[in-house]
Amino acid sequence: MIIGLTGSIGMGKSAVAAMFADEAVPVFDADATVHRLQGVGGRLVPAIAATFPGTTINGAVDRARLGAVVFGDDAAIKRLEAIVHPAVGEERAAFLAHHAGKLVVFDVPLLFETGGDRNVDVIVVVSAAPDVQRERVLARPGMTADKFAAILARQTPDAEKRARADHVIRTDTSFDETRAQVRAVLARYRI
Fold first, then answer.
1. What is the DSSP string of 83-109?
2. What is the mean pLDDT of the chain?
3. 29: which strand partners?
4. Which residues touch 185 (CB under 8 Å, ≥6 apart)?
5. Residue 7 scores a pLDDT above 80
6. Is 2 in contact with 122 (CB distance < 8 Å)?
7. Three-state DSSP class for 5?
């Protein structure tokens, strides 16, 4: 059983993923996998360096430099995705093989945008009120209102995600209430 966990930027998806992990559910974190593959000695570093010269430093992808190169350039983003997505897919397959027969969570920010929703059994969307989301995102280092708007423009709208979800977990509640929602989801699918 695969739970696909997703949510737009600033909705609290990472906190909810940690709550699933706290409940002893293996979690595949797509973002963490990308960071590792682009880190020092990561297997994507040579391909990214060749495709986007000047975006690596000391054997790792400099995410700020790479972001500056691809931000707002759909063609560049597609070239980057063509490098990253297959490698993440391989890592995800290895994770599944390691946890065969178990309930697992795929923590994938762009689950709908990449078609990953077709590869999960249950979809859980993490959501919060727009003002809470905006406050969280704009509190991040280096984030601007323009960057936030550009990121949102590339993501499936929250309302659509919620409409397509099997379960919605709200994070604009107390921590304990959010954890109770996670446990309620698990109670339905845990064997």
1. HHHHHHHHHHHHHHHHTTTS-EEEE-T
2. 94
3. 107
4. 3, 122, 124, 167, 169
5. yes
6. yes
7. strand
3-state secondary structure of 143: coil
Q: All domains of the chain, ordered by start, with CATH?
A: 2-189 (3.40.50.300)
pLDDT at 74 over 90: no
Q: pLDDT higher for 190 or 44?
A: 44
* Residue 186 CB neighbour total at 10 angstroms: 17
Cα separation, 147 vs 138, in Å, equals 9
Taking the model in full, what pTM does it have? Answer: 0.86
At residue 123 the predicted structure's pLDDT band, cuts being 50, 70 and 90, is very high
Q: DSSP label at 155?
A: S
Which residue in this structure is represented by tokens 């064997």?
A: 191
DSSP-assigned letter for residue 140: S
Q: Which residues contact 36 (CB under 8 A, 6 or more apart)?
A: 42
For residues 79-107, average pLDDT: 94
Q: How far apart are the first and last CA of the chain?
A: 10
pLDDT at 114: 84
Element spanning 138, H or E? helix 130-138
Separation between Cα atoms, residue 190 and residue 188, nearest integer Å: 6
